[in-house]
Write a structure and sequence with these properties.
The chain has 291 residues and is of the alpha+beta class. The chain has a single domain (6-286), classed as Clavaminate synthase-like (Double-stranded beta-helix). The protein contains 6 helices and 15 strands. It has helices at 29-41, 55-62, 148-153, 157-163, 172-179, 227-241; strands spanning 6-9, 16-19, 45-48, 92-96, 126-135, 143-147, 167-171, 195-199, 201-203, 210-212, 219-222, 247-250, 257-261, 265-269, 279-286. The strands form 4 sheets. It has a 7-stranded mixed beta sheet, covered by helices on one side. A hairpin with a 6-residue loop joins strand 1 and strand 2.
Length: 291
């Protein structure tokens, strides 16, 4: 890397920290290409420290990596989360345990407190998520990331052969049933537009590496199996993927911007900070149909 960045590996899984790069300034094509290459080599997890971004600058940086959900050229997120979008920037999903002066939530409280991959229930699920920590609690509020590529590569060849032809159903209704109260869920989100069939093992379009692509929060079942069989195999995969050796724990610092690859990892936000103020904004990049 150039321009006096400091690049540091944070995990044996490859997660990489970058310091000394100002993302509020336009980045040239060469630098964007370098960041994309580093992102892929890091296993799909970059953490940019000490960023000072407006919401628009966050969006401008993110769109250099692809089309954003909620943007004029993209498609919207599911209606259920629309109340948590930034009032001036529909590309931004807000996470917060605070309310404004009118008593309206500043964002979704307790967002992501379950293992999931963002928007995996769409035919073309999310590629990257880019989350900016504007306000963090004095203690707690970490996020866990499970590396589906490393987990896949450690499977026996017999298990890889078993999983190779399988597909799983991803359905927003799974998350709606456990993570949202009834008044919040928009019924139109349950009409099939947020339900998709994806390969259990997907191949990354840029790196060619294979990853396990199921998650407890949005995967309902394995296609073609009865429920007991599906539950048993998915249970094995979830327990395997969440072994400590496949986990990176993001301990947030104020003004961190984290960029992760939803195609290769799932994540879990730890809700252990009570009413200590927390506010983050997330941009989500549209991806391709998994293969």
């Amino acid at each position: 890397m150039r321009r006096n960045h400091i690049v540091k590996k944070l995990s044996m899984l490859g997660t990489t920290e970058i310091r000394g790069l100002d993302l509020s300034e336009p980045l040239d094509d060469e630098l964007i290409a370098e960041l994309k290459d580093l992102w892929n080599k890091s296993g799909g997890m970059l953490v940019f420290r000490n960023q000072h971004l407006t919401s628009q600058q966050h969006i401008d940086f993110s769109r250099q990596f692809g089309t954003l959900f909620g943007s004029p050229e993209g498609v919207p997120m599911q209606d259920t989360v629309s109340r948590y979008l930034h009032p001036d920037h529909p590309e931004l999903y807000c996470v917060s345990n605070q309310v404004n002066k009118k008593g309206v939530p500043k964002g979704r409280k307790g967002a992501g407190t379950y293992w999931h991959s963002d928007v995996s229930f769409r035919e073309e699920p999310a590629a990257a998520s880019i989350l900016y920590a504007k306000q963090i609690p004095s203690v707690g509020g970490d996020t866990l990331f499970a590396d589906g590529t490393a987990a896949y590569e450690d499977l026996s060849q017999a298990m890889k052969d078993l999983l190779a032809p399988l597909h799983a159903v991803h359905d927003f209704a799974v998350a709606a049933a456990t993570q949202y109260t009834n008044p919040v869920v928009i019924n139109d989100d349950l009409d099939g537009a947020n339900k998709a069939l994806h390969p259990v093992i997907r191949t990354h379009v840029d790196t060619g590496r294979k990853s396990i692509f199921v998650n407890p929060g949005q995967t309902s079942h394995l296609d073609g199996f009865d429920q007991a069989e599906s539950d048993a195999l998915l249970k094995f995969l979830y327990e395997h993927m969440t072994k400590p050796k496949y986990i990176f724990r993001q301990i947030w610092q104020e003004h961190d911007l984290a960029m992760w690859d939803n195609r290769t990892m799932m994540h879990f936000a730890i809700d252990d900070y009570g009413d200590d103020p927390r506010y983050l904004e997330r941009v989500t990049l549209m991806g391709e149909r998994p293969v």
